[in-house]
Amino acid sequence: MLAPMAGGFTTPELVAAVTRAGGLGTFGAMGMTADGLRADVAQALELGGPPVGINVLLAPPESRGDAGAMRAFFAPFRQELGLPPEPEAPAGPPPDPPLALVEAGLEAGATVVSSALGDPSPLVPLAREAGAPLVSMAATVEEARAHVAAGAEVIVAQGAEAGGHRATFDVGPEGPPLVGTFALVPQVVDAVDVPVVAAGGVTDGRGLAAALALGAAGVSLGTRFLVAEESGAAPVYRERLLALRDTDTVVTDAVTGRPARWVRNRLVDALAGESPPHLGWGTQRAAVMDIWAAAAKAGDAELVPMLAGQAAALAGDVRPAEEIVADVVEGAERILAELATRASPPS
Ligand SMILES: Cc1cc2nc3c(=O)[nH]c(=O)nc-3n(C[C@H](O)[C@H](O)[C@H](O)COP(=O)(O)O)c2cc1C
Question: What is the CATH number of the domain that holds 296?
Fold first, then answer.
């Protein structure tokens, strides 16, 4: 599976390419308008046919903390990028809420519904009515059980290595649970009676073979596809990903108000360090959004927040997504065949 990646990374071309290669392409729809998603789903179907998935993040928006203190914190960064002292209202219509996005995506012909950062129950009626399987991402055994009880038909078990936001929504003062993919997947497989897909740290055939050995029915790759030819990642983002080392990422809630794994750079380290308490999910992202866009445009790798997993270094090169899917599958087949030979007694 192409992991859903909100922020314009899962382009219609990328979604269609993964589906054409025999995988499942899924749009990360958070932040989009219903009309934008409708158009993208239609284009992906035209380019690659079904299946096409749509994913939403179910966390409700929050507003807390001290907006003035956050403005003061961002002031030197804004000045450095030549931005006005106050964030400007984003151009264009505001994004639509999760349920409106799912309705629009299904109307346009999407065949799979997926969600993270919350209880998937609100999506069950829409998914069932459309006959679309409901996929839900979980980062612990308890979450996986709860999501299946709520109606999820596939669980994506997201290990701590994963790039992007942690699937967990209710995070206590001790921070998000960070169970690694290797420990999480078999425990989730044992706990639920639906197919489990492994996510987090899978980039090649070795990862797929390992996930299958752990009992997963498949894998969901995010970071690897960020550097696919068809991805919407900016050049500065791709270059940084291709040079990333295993220790170059950090999990923090300071960038968007919810815990996520980011590439360490000057802005992320400053936010994760001595910054004022974040403003909550949605509000914090809005406070950082134009810095994000300006730094990406300027190609400033130290000031663009970049989500990435711990295995980014294994991504290796920029390739068409169809080749990535074929390589991962062929690589796993080769490893599994080799292991079968090793396991057989000599004749
Ligand atoms: C840039 C980026 C954006 C992401 N956005 C979403 C999203 O919108 N919805 C979601 O369910 N997961 C999102 N994720 C998490 C992925 O679904 C997946 O769990 C993760 O990428 C898997 O780990 P990997 O990056 O090591 O392959 C995102 C990940 C990245 C890297």
Answer: 3.20.20.70
